[in-house]
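Duplicate of #3305? Posting structure anyway:
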């Protein structure tokens, strides 16, 4: 076994076998923007903030924190607090 071969990934229940493929394995057919990217670009051209639908980066950071750390039920409870809804 050569030095390069010992770092190849193997499936747990199978023997590891690799072979160089001389042909083209994949090719890019088109380089279009994704739908989201084109919508984002159109919004920025119309003067929308890059943080839309959030007011600014701070509001985006808060939303990201809530989604990462709380379940939906807890977020709903937090949104109902009087100091948040003002």
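Output from current build:
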């Amino acid at each position: 076994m050569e030095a390069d071969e010992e770092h190849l990934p193997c499936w747990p229940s199978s023997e590891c076998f690799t072979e160089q493929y001389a042909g083209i394995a994949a090719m890019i057919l088109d380089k279009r923007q994704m739908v989201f990217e084109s919508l984002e670009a159109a919004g920025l051209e119309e003067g929308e903030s890059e943080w839309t639908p959030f007011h600014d980066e701070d509001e985006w950071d808060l939303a990201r924190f809530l989604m990462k750390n709380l379940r939906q039920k807890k977020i709903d409870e937090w949104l109902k607090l009087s100091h948040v809804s003002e």
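Confirmed duplicate; merging threads. Residues 5-85 form one domain. The mean pLDDT is 82.
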